[in-house]
């Protein structure tokens, strides 16, 4: 946070603010994490890949809840109509034909039991704490900060562009079919990030608000990073799986 | 959680419930964590010891807030009068002559800057998320669950009894003086844990409430465990310190 902490002291133009936000992504987005590097290099074990899908499900499943919280706090119908698309993307028309269902298909395609994944009870506690922090953030911080915390989507087309070809090329048990989640995501994420970025550039009109926006994006990068830290520690082969978490060895 | 998940299905006597709670401690308390083993064996680097004190400060500093939340939700004046002692222990008479101040003394005694520690800005995000989850738990769950989540204090005299002699014997830069935090803690923790255990045994009168109490203690063990997971991953020597966190190499 140090390097961005004073960026907004004297106030930034909208395009300067955008530049700072993009620098945060370039320095802190989780495509820089060693776990992601291992994934795209083909080095993950099947257990690591399963643990990733299982834990990431907790994140996916909370996205429409944090977006509903943002909706609930938004007073502008036009904003709500736009933001609502995010919920529709993840929940689909019946709850189980959108992004969450497609993530579940990835998890089951990797050999996990659907009910176990949906129960989230074998996820790492650290995943739950990080995801809970994200939901709390969108509940308790200003709507501007909540919107800004979504801006990691500026960078998600890049990580998906690295992840999908590598998963198909490097892991023989991964098929295009189970990666259906990722197909619409770059388009959706670009649409959503463009809207959120324009909103932030329009509404972060004081140095204090600009700093809050910067801190919100740093916070969100920390959430994603901490999830991979926990995965790497638990499943990196040293036997550091915490008590009660997913452990295929225990059957 | 598996092994305790069905313990309360048919209802437990108060003493059976106590036995289950003690079993959770025997299986999941953080004296079993590899980071604690390294600490008592003398294997921690000075950076690891500093990182532990710095991150643990975030936990210490939230304790009186989570206890205040429990106080705010308690309707019985006698309960509040008893529970209030916990806040007094940590805040002291003026905010800076109780347990938090003594923890700060430990941190500065290990060479850290007091203002940096108090700002919490170099703590691991995972620490913040775990501590935040604890505060949220005491805010959002039932008062019975909030009380039950404090029951890790049943086990804290044991870990302090392992930690203090080992820190003095194995690390030449650790003096009795900087360990002042721990001197009153076993007595305070025993008094507090006895009260909380009696409360839980009296009020967890249905299988559902007993299960909630069990889950609350498991949750709290997960909080403490996840904090050591994050420390071990970040400062275990492999260079996994997340962006923005305490890093003495960066000066």
UniProtKB/TrEMBL annotation, chains A, B:
GO terms for molecular function: pyrroloquinoline-quinone synthase activity. Its EC number is 1.3.3.11. Pfam families: TENA_THI-4. Residues 21-229 form the Thiaminase-2/PQQC domain. InterPro entries: Haem_Oase-like_multi-hlx, PqqC, PqqC-like, Thiaminase-2/PQQC. GO terms for biological process: pyrroloquinoline quinone biosynthetic process. Pathway: Cofactor biosynthesis; pyrroloquinoline quinone biosynthesis. Keywords: Oxidoreductase, PQQ biosynthesis. The keyword Oxidoreductase applies. It catalyses: 6-(2-amino-2-carboxyethyl)-7,8-dioxo-1,2,3,4,7,8-hexahydroquinoline-2,4-dicarboxylate + 3 O2 = pyrroloquinoline quinone + 2 H2O2 + 2 H2O + H(+). Ring cyclization and eight-electron oxidation of 3a-(2-amino-2-carboxyethyl)-4,5-dioxo-4,5,6,7,8,9-hexahydroquinoline-7,9-dicarboxylic-acid to PQQ. Belongs to the PqqC family. This is Pyrroloquinoline-quinone synthase. It comes from Phyllobacterium phragmitis.
């Amino acid at each position: 946070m140090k390097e961005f902490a004073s960026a907004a002291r004297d106030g930034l133009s909208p395009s300067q603010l955008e530049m700072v936000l993009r620098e945060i992504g370039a320095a802190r987005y989780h495509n820089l994490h060693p776990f992601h590097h291992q994934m795209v290099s083909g080095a993950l074990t099947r257990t690591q890949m399963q643990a990733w899908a299982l834990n990431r499900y907790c994140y996916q499943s909370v996205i429409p809840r944090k977006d509903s919280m943002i909706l609930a706090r938004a007073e502008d119908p036009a904003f709500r109509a736009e933001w609502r698309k995010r919920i529709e993307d993840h929940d689909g028309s019946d709850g189980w034909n959108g992004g969450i269902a497609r993530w579940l298909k990835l998890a089951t395609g990797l050999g996990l039991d659907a009910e176990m994944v949906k129960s989230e009870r074998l996820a790492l506690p650290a995943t739950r704490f990080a995801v809970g922090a994200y939901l709390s953030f969108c509940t308790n911080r200003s709507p501007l900060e909540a919107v800004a915390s979504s801006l990691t989507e500026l960078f998600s087309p890049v990580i998906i562009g690295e992840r999908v070809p590598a998963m198909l090329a490097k892991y023989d048990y991964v098929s295009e079919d189970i990666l259906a989640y990722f197909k619409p995501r770059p388009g959706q994420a670009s649409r959503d990030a463009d809207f959120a970025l324009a909103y932030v550039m329009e509404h972060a009109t004081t140095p204090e608000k600009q700093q809050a926006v910067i801190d919100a994006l740093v916070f969100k990068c920390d959430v994603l990073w901490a999830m991979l830290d926990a995965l790497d520690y638990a499943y990196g082969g040293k036997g550091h799986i915490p008590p009660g978490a997913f452990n295929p060895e225990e059957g």
